[in-house]
Design a protein that fits this description.
- About 30% of the residues lie in helices and about 20% in strands.
- With about 230 residues, the chain is of the alpha/beta class.
- The chain is globular, with a radius of gyration of 19 Å.
- Helix 4 packs across helix 5.
C-alpha cells in the first residue's frame, strides 16, 4: 500500500498510492493506524535553543502582529526571516517571505553572504509579484538587516507597515521558524549534501513542493497555492 520513491520535487517521500487529490478521501486517523501496522514513523522536528546575537539596532518597530499568525486575505500579513545551512566549511543563507493567509512562500533569495542586500533582494522579488500591498504588515525579528535604514526606507514606499518581534523572543516569529524547521527536516537533513550547489537545488525544490504539493490541515487539506486560488475564485 505504501511506496518509497524519489518524488517529482527531488527528495524521497513515503505516501499512500491513493491520495486525496486523486479523488480518494481518507481520515488522518486511518493513515496513522496503517503507518503503525507497517512500522512507519514521521520525522520529528527537534525543538532547538536559540542564542540570539544582536548588533546595535538602527531602527526598531513595534510588534504589530502579537503572535496572531492568521490573516483573512492574501497580502494582509507577511512574516520573514533568514536561516543558514552549512556544507563543510561554507554557509548558505536563505531569506524568505511567507504569507500568513495561506502559508505560501511569496519570495526567497539564496546567498553565501548574510547581508542587507540578501533581504532587500528578497523583498524586491516579493513586491514585483504582488503589485498592491497597501496596508500589508511585514513582521520580522530584530536582526541587523531588518533594523537597517535601507529596510525601513523600502517598505513604506509600497505602503507596507513594519512589525518586529521583541528582542530575544523567537516565539514572536514562530510561523517563519516553523517553515525553516520543515525545510531542514524534510528537504535537507535526510540527504548527504556534498556542496552548496546541491543544497541550493534541494532548497528550491522543497519550496516549490511546499507551495504546490504539500497538503496542510490548516488549509482544509489543500496546498498553499490551491488555497489561494480557491479564495480568488
Amino acid at each position: 500500500m505504501y511506496k518509497r520513491y524519489e518524488g517529482k520535487y527531488g527528495y524521497r517521500q513515503t505516501q499512500l498510492f491513493l491520495w486525496q487529490d486523486q479523488g480518494v478521501w481518507m481520515n488522518h486517523k486511518k493513515v496513522l493506524c496503517l503507518m503503525q501496522e507497517l512500522g512507519l514513523q514521521g520525522r520529528i522536528r527537534k525543538k532547538r535553543q536559540f542564542n540570539m546575537v544582536y548588533k546595535a539596532a538602527e531602527r526598531v518597530a513595534e510588534n504589530l502582529l502579537k503572535r496572531n499568525f492568521t490573516a483573512e486575505k492574501p497580502n494582509q500579513k507577511w512574516v520573514t526571516d533568514v536561516t543558514q545551512y552549512r556544507v563543510g566549511e561554507r554557509w548558505l543563507y536563505l531569506s524568505a517571505v511567507k504569507d500568513l493567509f495561506n502559508n505560501e512562500i511569496v519570495a526567497y533569495q539564496l546567498s553565501e553572504r548574510n547581508d542587507n542586500e540578501l533581504v532587500l533582494q528578497t523583498f524586491t522579488k516579493a513586491f514585483a509579484k504582488q503589485k498592491d500591498v497597501t496596508g500589508l504588515v511585514v513582521h520580522s525579528d530584530q536582526g541587523f538587516q531588518y533594523t537597517s535604514h535601507a529596510y525601513h526606507d523600502m517598505l513604506p514606499k509600497v505602503s507596507a507597515q513594519i512589525s518586529m518581534s521583541r528582542r530575544g523572543n523567537c516565539l514572536d516569529n514562530a510561523s517563519m521558524e516553523s517553515f525553516f524547521s520543515h525545510l531542514k527536516t524534510e528537504g535537507l537533513y535526510p540527504y548527504n549534501i556534498r556542496n552548496l550547489t546541491e543544497a541550493q537545488s534541494r532548497i528550491e525544490k522543497y519550496i516549490q513542493f511546499y507551495n504546490r504539493g504539500r497538503l496542510q490541515r490548516k488549509l482544509n487539506k489543500l496546498t498553499p497555492v490551491e488555497y489561494r486560488r480557491q479564495f480568488a475564485a
